[in-house]
Amino acid sequence: MLGSTADSLFWMFRYIERVENTLCMIESGFQLYLLSSSNLNNEWDAILRTNSIRHHFLKKNNSLDSLNIINFMLKDPKNFNNILILFDKARENARRSRVSITSEVWEAINTCWLYLNEELNKKINESKIQTIIKNTREKIALIFGFLERSMLKNEILNFCYLGTFIERFDNTVRILNTRYYLLLDEKKIRFEGYDNFQLEMILRSISSYRSFMWKNQNEIKANKVSYFLISDKDMPKSLMFCVNETIKNLKSVHKKNFPKNKSYQNALSIQKKIKQKSRNFNNYSFLNSLFKLNMTLAANIEEEFNFQ
């Protein structure tokens, strides 16, 4: 496969995954805004920090106003990671690699792009936000559905999934890194405002609240949330699940030569690090090291396949 094609496939699905993750965070903040003013500023502050856009937002805003933040994350041109820009990049990569994806995948991406451009170029008020989030997430789910149902199980699909799981790992570790103090042992340290609601907001920002409650008999504890989002092999947004899927796709795309490649070796080192820290992983340096290792892994993939 040409490096330019691999590049487009990889980044197309990094951007689509990033849009989905950002929408989940906006939705969790918006639901809190509708239900309660308690901890609202802390929640928006954490969301802006997770997306590394707090500094840019505060350049033009003096307070953490909910509707201003949502508009900033959805479409403000001063936010280079806004939903409109991200999906435009995804669609451009899809256009470049048009011959490598099925018509169903292309049409689903293009339909989502058309919808976002139509809706986000209008004035967005409170009554429209939930509908935009819901409809966009449904359209993204359709993209992934057609990806799974209509694409051949070959290296083209491998690069789509590599982009997806590298980005998903990045998102989960950013959220944990921003809020790691909530996951410390409750007996050792207690922060003002620490309660189960804060942990619930972490789960909701990764769209994992219901699956966590099913698996943990409706009991929210810091150590259980930590394990669920870091080491649980069955949880699609956990760090362990993401790195396992990355390893599987690297094996497939490298074929028999996979043990020799840096990307595969680095993915294994991430997997090993998570396994070794499974009983004591609640610290900033551990999460920060995983973030850096994942960035290195992404760079390895770009280098090995001559991305252009």
Quick rundown:
This protein has 308 residues and is mostly helical. It is built from 14 helices and no strands. It has two domains: 1-150, no CATH class; 153-308, no CATH class.
What's the helix and strand layout?
Layout: H1 3-35, H2 40-50, H3 54-60, H4 66-74, H5 83-96, H6 103-120, H7 126-150, H8 155-178, H9 196-205, H10 209-215, H11 222-230, H12 239-254, H13 262-276, H14 284-304
Query: What coarse outline follows from CA principal-axis ratios?
Result: globular
* Number of domain units: 2
Low-confidence spans: pLDDT under 50, at least 5 residues? 185-194
DSSP helical segment count: 14
Percent helix:
over 70%
Give an account of the 3D structure.
It is a single chain. With 308 residues, this protein is mainly α. The chain folds into two domains: 1-150, no CATH class; 153-308, no CATH class. It is built from 14 helices and no strands. The chain is globular. The two termini are 12 Å apart. Mean pLDDT is 90; it is low at 185-194.
